Input
Amino acid sequence: MSARAASALADGPVLPALLRLSAPGLLLVVFQAAISIADTHFVGRLGTEPLAGLALVFPLVMLLQMTSAGAMGGGVASAVARALGAGDAARARALVAHGLAIALASGLAFTAVVLAFGRPIYRLLGGEGEALEAALAYSNVLFSGAVLVWIANTLAAVLRGSGNTLVPALVLVGASLVHIPLSGALTLGWGPLPRLGIAGAACAYVVAFAFAAALAGAWLWRRTALAPRREDVRFAWREFREILRVGAISSVSAVQTVLTAVILTGLVGRFGTAALAGYGVGVRLELLQVPIVFAIGQALVVLVGTSVGAGRPARAKRVAFAGAAIAAGVCFAIGASAAVWPRLWVSLFSEDPAVLEAGAAYLRIVGPFYPFIGVGIALYFASQGAARVVWPVLAGTARLALVAGGGFALVALGAPLAALFALIALGIVVWGSGTAIAVRAADWSRPG
Output
């Protein structure tokens, strides 16, 4: 990003810049939604037990994506944006080298932990029998390629931090076009390819991210001025700290979000396999909104980070709440539709009456509160751009405490599944409104 481009982001009209930076990510949403729907559809063709196994692994896949793309990726994008906003291109290149080192170490750590402890984790979530074995078949393959996911998402974050949101979106669109047909072919055994069952969907996931990492790396090194030079690969705590002061704290938020999902998955699992499968299908619509708000959020990281780096905190706040309003509106449209016509979504994946009932109940109860998801995620990313993420993370802590304490109490009292879903909705409201209050009160006059 040139000095002129950085100045345009820090001083130009807010809404056009926000829409321009968000648009490529919103295009990507279509393809990421197609991946989620396709994988669930292909695995659903194998039966209810593999579908339940997919739901068991989903919280850890969320953690992998949220930490690599949203948390540490946000830390990388924020650091690069602030360095470029301050006119320090050399430091931006050094931050790229440090970000890739973090990605390599983190990806290897994911692989080691999940391969070693996957079985007890999925048992803790209520997995047993065929559902547990299906979860392990999927998980062991997918997490063996965790490094590729981390590298691809870190390279994409670097490009977004430079103000280029189009190329990383196109890279991931290309990966989606690889993933979807390959997933169907390997899961169900199309043509000459082997029928690998649920492991086939995991193979497709890994191959797609290898493709994305190669494309993003080639673009960074050949078409930008951000590729680290030899003198930039001198690791120093100062540069690690610049990324980690956002990325590490944001990773706590990711862990809280996934721990919330883990606890809820375990609690829903006590109502039976069909309830677990229905909940897994229903919550996927909620999670399909994440890429939409992620597109807006990554634009907020760049615009807020550049504005803060250029000494424009008041503008940064205007950008943040404009993005949150757009995100809330999109999530309201999705949530209202899901609440009115829940079976249109759930029936895409299963015809089991018990699965349909559980999934529809989830969407009817939780769907109306989806706007708070948009507000919470958008303002969380805006806070990353300002390097002020502690209070938004604490809003997530409040949600976790409410869901964990209240959920176990409801199950102990023999409450129905609908009561648990109502608690989920309340947790979303606490998180979204708490984040908004924290951002409004925060002092963004200097990075914290």
